[in-house]
Structures are given as C-alpha cells and as structure tokens.
Amino acid sequence: MDLSDKVQSELTSSQSSSQTELQQTETQQEQNDIQLEKEQTETETQPQEKQEPQEEKQEPQEEKQEQKGYWYEQISPQEFQRIKAKYWEETVPVVAKEIGMNETELVKMMLAVGIDSPDLITDLRKTIAEIDSKNKRVTEDNRSLKPQRKTTTANDSNTIKGKSWYEIADMIKRQRGVI
Amino acid sequence: MATLEDLRVELNTIIRDYDLFNEVVDRMWKSSALATILSKNKRQVSGGISYEFRVRLTETDIPTQRKRFYDVIETSRVGNPVVGKFQLGIMQKAISISKDEIEANKGEAKIIDVVTDRMKEFEESAKKQFLLDLIYGNPAVDANAPTGLEVILTPNNNYAGIDETIYPSWSPVSINASTSTYAVDTDTKLLSTYSTTDARTIDLFINDVVYKISKGQPELKPNIVLTTGHIYSLIKAAIYPQVILQDKALVDVGFENVKFSGLTIIEDPFIPDRTMYFLSTDDIMMLYKSLDLNPPEFKVEDPSGKSRTLISIVEVEWTLACTKRRNQAKVTNVGDAQS
After folding, report:
1. Domain segments of chain A: what residues?
2. Handedness of CA B215, B217, B218, B222 (dihedral sign)
3. What is the pTM of this model?
C-alpha cells in the first residue's frame, strides 16, 4: 500500500465524517489542484524555454560577483576606499595574519557586516577566535598553535641550522628520495 | 648516463635549494667568541665597497666634571666633522670538484656527499681565514684584506684615512705591561708563570687600564678583554678561589669566559702572544656585504682541454670598523716571553 493510497483513505474517512466539511474540502481541493496544475505547467515550460539563456546570463553575473563582490550593493566604492585606506596598512594585516585569512577576504567580510571602527574590529577578532577554537581550525599563523609546532620533529628535521654536514647530507638525501 | 652538464646543474640546484653557501658564511660569523660578540653589531653595506662616516674628533677636557666630548655624529654643532672611510676587504674561496672525483662518485647520493664534504672544507677554510683576518687583516699589506683589530689598536697608522698627528683623539690607548706599576720587576711580573699574581693585583691592573681609557666616565668603559689562552688560564687560576661568573650569552653559544672586575674576559686562538685587547665592542661594527640571492654557481673550467673541473668562486666582503678608537686599548708584554 502506497503512501498516496494511505492519504487518500484517510481523506475519504475524514470526508465521510461530515458532508459539509467534505463539500468545503472538495471545493478547496479543486481550487488547489487548479493552482498546482498552473504552477506545474509554468515550472515545466519555463526551464525548457529559459534554461539556455539563463545559463548564458548566469556566467557573466558570477564573474561580476567575483570581480566586484556582493558588498558593492550595500556600500559605495568611495566608502570602501575610505575604509580600506584607513585600516589597510595597520589593522587589517595584523588581524588577517592572526586569524590566518587573506587580507582581501577580511576586508570583504568587514565591509559586508559594516565594520568601520577599531572596537568593532577587536570584537570581530574575538568572535573569529571563538569560532576557530570551537571548530578547531588550524592555521599557519595561529599563535596558539605555535608551541605545538615547535615540539614536532618534522619541522626541525627540515632545517640545516646547527646540523653537522653529515646530518645535512643525510637530510638532503632523504628529502630528494635517494635513501 | 649523466653528463658533466647534468651534474653541474644538479650541484647548483642542491646548493641553491638548501642555501648552503649562506649557511657556511653564517657559521663563519659565529666561529669564535670575539666573532660572536662583534657580529651582534653587524651592518650591511648595500652599495659600493666602502663605508663613509663622519666623526667629531675635537676633544674637550673639563677637569672638574671629567667630561670628554667625543662622538660619532653627522650633525655636529662644533666645527666640521672629520670624514673617514672604511674599505671592505674580500675573502675569496675557490671550491672545485675534479672530473676524476665526479666520475668516481656517480649517483645522486654520492653527489650529495661530495657537495656536503666540499661545504665542510669550505667552512673550515673560511673560518680560519676569517679568524686570522679578524686580528691580523691589514689592507696596507694585502690590498684585498679586511681591517683587523691589530690595525685598529696600533697607533699612528692613518686608520680609516684620518691622521692621528692632527687628531690625537683618534689614537687608541697603548700600554706596555712590563713598565706598568704592577710589573716593576721580574719576580712580581704581572701574570708571570713563575710568580703568583693574585686576583687583587689583576683587579688593580685591569682597573688601571680601564681608567686610562675611560678617564672615569662609565660610558667609555670597555666591556671585553681578549687575550691568549695562556694568559686566560693564568687569570682564571688567580681568581679561581673566588666565585667565577660567566657571561651567559657567550656560554649559551659554547664559548667559555670569565666575568671579572666588570669585564668579560675571553680567550682567542689567534691573538698575538703576551697581548691583551681591551675592547669596547659597541663601537666596533662589522661591515659586510651579503652574498647575492643567487649564490655563485659551479661552472665548468677547462683550461687545458683535458681535465675538466667544476669550480665555484665565493667572495665574502667584510671589514671591522671602529668609530671610537680612543675607547680601545692594547696591552703588550704581559707575563713571560714564551720560549
């Protein structure tokens, strides 16, 4: 027994409960059915006719989004330049390095959420640090991970500082796969 | 079969990828206690082979205040500053790998062995040359040599192109220990093997030299005493019953020293016999030009057409530059003449 059959049987049972309700529901069902049919025909016809031109249009749109970014709709280019000039040299590189993010990405994010004051940047830094600690995100420049990196032997074996030439030869051979 | 050209390319790749030449030069800068101290005051010369400086050498003594004006500044408010020039010396090392050696060591692993072996030889040779030049380098003897401490500490040699007869304050302090107060006769000669020079006498002697340099001004006090292994051991023996303090920064990089009477006493393998240098190392710069980003490559040299050899010529340009020569002193004739 299919689900649709079950639904129908339940509907019939409910229909049998009262005729007035039945009449109302029948009229509603009819209306709904008509609407559904209309929508279906629309949705069926639309893709067939418009799929190809839509695909053609979507590509340039995506390119534009990549070039300009979606925040341009929310903030003017002049405002963007003003904020960028204000924080680019000082705050942004520091924050970006700390959270392991590209500077451009960070500016995008800041502008998207309307950040234009140092207090908000510090708040953002805290929020990102919290999210990172929850997600255990590993980044190259995450300071909290530095002590762990020092304890690993993998990095130590890659440097020639303080090694004897015999050890250096051994290391080069290992890295070039001749051992 | 790998050709000589293939091997040459591989050699250069290994040296470039692991920055082996620069590693050797780095090790050279820290090859002795003196080099380690002086290399903290390194300054890179970006263009040319000389470093020009301006110094105000008009010395004013105010006996009541014990003030001496003697400064290295470019904005002197009294008179015209004297212009001096330090010339960089060139240490050149040719590293070669012969055809026979290449043929006997086929395979990448053997080539890596040859490269690291050559780097080891280069390091040993460069270190020895560097430590010798650090003391004895003299451009008047060898035009390409850097300037060493002997030139800086010897008076009347027109160091950096400044005439000491015109500017007496450009002359370093020179002391003969055999005629000093603390070495009047042979039996009580300072740091003699046959006399028991006590810590008190050494302390008085060091303070005497320091006073001759600084005239009582603490900022002109030297910070390092450099001496021979023999004299160093005699000083150490004399002060042994007392507490021996060491400069931790030097101990950390593997150089023994003694802190005594406010100075760090260290030994040097190449310093002249019976000599002590009293140095204010803050006033001695080590000028250098770093190796290029692209290290000197091995090239095929084929002069006779028979024996083909791979050769790389590494040049390290450096010199010592003392800008306050009056703060340095050389004490000669310490202890007994060594037979």
Report:
1. 1-33, 70-141, 144-179
2. negative
3. 0.65
